[in-house]
Amino acid sequence: MSINCPNGMPYTVKAGDSFFLIARTFGISLDALLAANPGIDPDRLFIGQVICVPTTPPPTQNCPTLRRGSTGPKVRELQILLKNQGFDPGPIDGDFGPLTEAAVRNFQRSKGLLVDGIVGIATWTALGVNCGVTPPPTCPPGTFSYTVRPGDTFYILAQRYNTTVAAIQRANPTVNPNNLQVGQIICIPRT
Predict the structure, then answer these.
(1) Mean pLDDT of 110-125
(2) Which of the following CATH numbers is that of domain 143-189: 3.10.350.10, 3.30.1490.190, 1.10.260.40, 3.55.10.10?
(3) Which fold has domain 8-54?
(4) CA distance linking residue 28 with residue 134, whole number of Å
(5) How far apart are CA 28 and CA 143, in angstroms?
(6) pTM score of the predicted model
């Protein structure tokens, strides 16, 4: 069964699952999981049922998600903040174009954030904006955060990012490499 999850990913309910356990597994709040699944009775889950697990926190008024193509006063604010931090976004024109994206990527790299060119809560917070939410924990220096996808293993990630399984294990001492969960955030050493 196909399900549309605009701010998350589909998840198939397994034996023993509850909304509480699913929320805990993916490190999200129970309220966020309930909000992503209107019309689903959390007391009547069944094996094989497909629900949405939010992977991106909902944007806040202070911290909307911005990416290339975004326009408006919040993009202008972003450009000013980037410029004040020493990252040239090009003209301060409220248009999120290639120069602004490059500045965002360079800023994210300098702060050890996921370098995706998308301005979400973690990037806004690193720029000094109070988003009213707690961002996910950041990875230690020399590593970057990575969201586990289906099929990922430490071995595959080590090959993909030119590092070793042992280095990934050292960067994630509390993570069981034999029980990676889709949507889980881990740290990958930089090469």
Answers:
(1) 84
(2) 3.10.350.10
(3) Membrane-bound Lytic Murein Transglycosylase D; Chain A (3.10.350)
(4) 12
(5) 23
(6) 0.43
